[in-house]
């Protein structure tokens, strides 16, 4: 990997612009169809634009725009909190609306900052002009389907090089962390608080490493292991998602009178196996879309990160539709229809492009397809439903630029509160314990018996929520505890 300057090893910005950054504040609603902006305006938020360097090595060079929102404190103000919803590439502009509610008594004590990270959402966009979302994608059951998807991800990388090549070398987590510090400076804050979910925990850990002493209270929910974060991260979560699928099958079997997927867990699993078998051989026709062995595992994987009854009900409806499609064409319900529209059409090109570019920008991965094929084959028996998805080659194997800086080594004494579910299928529990070793002054609250990704303010666990809120109000970290 190429290292631009020695300063990058120390975590400091490559150079510091002399000009104090200024945020241009304005109303949030862009037009009559902008429901997100309207909701922010109605809540009393304001939106702003901040110019930051495209390349922090050339602070006076080309600039890009960050879009952010601010919902000001209405109570006894503690400070400013920056929010990140993960992804990577998840927009954050409207996060203050839900977090003000989730934070309860602490919600009115902070200026809540929703930020669309560089190249995401309303910030200067990146778009590879993809024909469909494109990644992650399963390699299917056969070598021929693997090779077809291999060509597909190579095409994604080529499209990004053609349509977004001027930006790609500047898309990475370290630059996003630098952007957050520019936001801090522009807001006139000596310190900021931070709450991040999923990938946002990695971003938060990188910020702590690069800018020590500039945070007040930090919550990292659904944490990533910083040593494993790369485009190959999913290869470690296959077993957890196989377990989540089996747990859902037990739930569905108990409700066979409603969903007719099988009266026992093994029969429900047989229904899932039929879906995958027919999709791989003949394809499934659902509305205007044709699903195959590459796309069906994506559909089955996505909703498994939530074990609440409402989510499992939705999942059962999706599986029922997929099973019906093994016998002939069917029409999707609104939820599955919307998911397929995002997955299989150009509608999600821009957010998918940002996500892929961020992942590929941080850490290089093997470029030999055989590495991935052997990995899939070695795990088909133990991970029969998801090995071809979680272990599949990505566009990063063909990425047109190399990471511009080495991955950030996380090792510091900054305080933080880590929130983790022991059954999280997306960021498995070993990630949380690994992150805590990198942040020895962090404390952890563990939710047991939950297969949910993202806990605080989302799962409805009073113990977790109250622990986080108390910390945000008092700045006293609890001892490690279990809820």
TrEMBL record:
GO terms for molecular function: hydrolase activity. Keywords: Hydrolase, Signal. Residues 393-483 form the Peptidase S33 tripeptidyl aminopeptidase-like C-terminal domain. Gene3D superfamilies: alpha/beta hydrolase. Residues 1-18 form the signal peptide. Coiled coil: none annotated. InterPro entries: AB_hydrolase_1, AB_hydrolase_fold, Pept_S33_TAP-like_C, Serine_prot/Carboxylest_S33. Residues 80-254 form the AB hydrolase-1 domain. The keyword Signal applies. Belongs to the peptidase S33 family. This is Alpha/beta hydrolase. It comes from Kribbella soli.
